[in-house]
Amino acid sequence: MLILTNSYREKMCLTREMHCLLNKSCMAALDTRKCLRFFLNALYFKHSSEVSREDYNMYMIYCYLAAIRLDDLGTSVLIKFLNAQDPTKMNVFLQFLFNEQSLNRWLKDEWCKLFDENYVDDTLIGRLLANKVSIQGTIDRIQAAAEKGVVLEQTADDASSGANSTGGGGKTTIPKPFNITKARPRILPEPDRIEVGFKANEVPQSTFQRPTIEQKVADAREEAQKNTRLRHESYESFEFTERPMHLDRLKQEAAQKFEEDNRYIAPTVNPVPKRNPETQPKVRMTAAAVLREDALLKKKQKKEAEMIRKYESELRDAKSFEEWKVEQELKEEEERLALVEQRRAEMIMTDIAAREAREKLVLNKKMIVNEARKEANAMRKQLSLEDKRKLAEKQALVEGLSPFHSPL
């Protein structure tokens, strides 16, 4: 608080009313520090390299004045407070506070945790955006001063409005930068002239001519090629199309041989031997086998007796129901088999569609690769032409400067 007061006394006319306002603002900022802490955290997170931790309390008070007490103070008082600080600090503060995108992205969700959403949209954010037009000129001046790195000067309107609002005689102190003598640019000394103590000879003409040995080798190569071409002109070329071909017959013989080698031969099965009942040995029934046969017979008799009893008591036969039941089970089995076949067909169609899509994707990728290769070849040709052009320019430059160079 003491640091802020001293800063305002140096840069602006701080009356008793303004001093009381500053004291109340500091106390109120402490009461609402939970709301202001969200703003400060977002400011220091987004502009961590542009703000200092030493200005934490200053930004808290300025946020309280601009976001909560702006309607009570008025834009003229806020402009006086803004002009009293460093333009670089105020530029970061104003660019963050009066930016709709920053407010909605960094502060709206955090403020909605403390206040109602309508209050945040209509009062806190709405007040800042509504008053942005009235102080846009001050924002632009502070931004320009921060970019140039100069001290911000108050305009005549700001000075008169501040003097009238403080109740003085219409005079106020306007801060101005010191009239420091600007250093003159240093004049660089002229470079020392280096005298050349020798005279270079002219480049010999043999440098630009083809060596004699290479010329002889090229002539000999051309003569050998010419003699070889004349020697082979009398020979006749081979004719491969006059030889008879038996491709169809060979294919047919190969197919017949394949069928003979892979023909299926059914295995021979011995017939069932005939049995004579007279010669068959007699099997004697054991006591367990006799009891088992007797139990099966009694079970069948009991089931038939139960059916007769039900028919006598209920006057109906369950035979028709059993036949209907069997018929419905067969029909359900047929429907299940038809559904299985349908799903199998759908899976086959899906596989075919996926294969076609995969082939189409591979074809598209091949087309893209071909286009990329064409573009690369075109760019390579263009680069080669550019290199040739630069080489020709350099050669022309060398030819122009050749009389001034000495042989190695």
Brief description of this entry?
With 408 residues, this protein is mainly α. The chain has helices at 2-11, 16-31, 33-46, 56-67, 70-73, 75-83, 87-97, 100-111, 117-130, 136-148, 156-166, 212-231, 247-261, 287-314, 319-401.
Major sheet, described briefly?
none
Query: How many DSSP-defined strands?
Result: 0
> Low-confidence stretches at least 5 residues in length (pLDDT < 50)?
5-13, 154-169, 404-408
What's the helix count? Answer: 15
- Overall mean pLDDT stands at 79
What would you call the structural class?
mainly alpha
Q: What topology does this entry show?
A:
Layout: H1 2-11, H2 16-31, H3 33-46, H4 56-67, H5 70-73, H6 75-83, H7 87-97, H8 100-111, H9 117-130, H10 136-148, H11 156-166, H12 212-231, H13 247-261, H14 287-314, H15 319-401
Write up what this structure looks like.
With 408 residues, this protein is an all-alpha fold. 67% of the residues lie in helices and 0% in strands. The chain has helices spanning 2-11, 16-31, 33-46, 56-67, 70-73, 75-83, 87-97, 100-111, 117-130, 136-148, 156-166, 212-231, 247-261, 287-314, 319-401. Helix 3 (33-46) packs across helix 4 (56-67). The radius of gyration is 53 Å and the shape is flat.
Pick out its properties.
single chain, about 400 residues, mainly alpha, 15 helices, about 65% helix
